[in-house]
Amino acid sequence: MEKNDVMVLNEIIYRLYDRSSAVQDRERRLLADLRTFLHCPFASILHAAPSEDAPAFRDPICDPASFLPAEEAYIRLSGEDHMLWSSIAGRPAVVRESSMLSDSARQETAIYLACYQKFGIYDTLQTNLFSAGRLLGVLTLYRTKKEGVFSDDDVFVMQCLSCHLSRLLEVEKQKENRAAGPSALRGERVRKLSASHGLTDRESEILSLLLKGSADRDIAESLSISEGTLKKHIQHIYRKLGISARWELIVFLSEDLY
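User: That's the sequence. What structure does it adopt?
Assistant: Structure tokens below.
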């Protein structure tokens, strides 16, 4: 990279940490800066949506705003994206689509035809944003045939930016979690525990009530089961979680709330 390019990149990174601006404003500024710096007519950030299955997305930010319909269409069809593997990997990756598929193959995909054909998209450069193995979002730059394919230098710029943008999104995610309050965090954690430890729907329901501090008698009454049946369910929950006492549930729950 030329010395001037390094200075511009440094300025772009500096603006990401400008706390005088809202996060969405900083994201929009980043997209505008990248469009100018890397010569691409369209850019977007898709934020990861909670999902137990394949990666899902929400809250697209696009520059220019006229590109928003393309990304809204993509969100509906993202399960068919041949590039989705990079969002499942659990680690940051910068992917240049022209390196993965031929020109003709790229322009025959269902995603291209439904979302990007009318914008004349020719190549994409995508970076997946992760923190501790958790997908935070995807930043994508788009070029038409006029601008040509993305270069190795372009890939390097995206690699430099990805860790900074990931940090910004992670901080905002933590703020959202704190604002959501303990009950919302508890519900999210219970869903994750249930999925990862094979709890049944009934066991998940009981786990939620245990974590609220409900007494056994009240839990049994609310679920219309005997206390003896409840104790059996609790034993199964403890066995699956690898614990032996109720106080350990609190420790188990708090391991990764933030």
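The chain has two domains: 3-176, 198-256.
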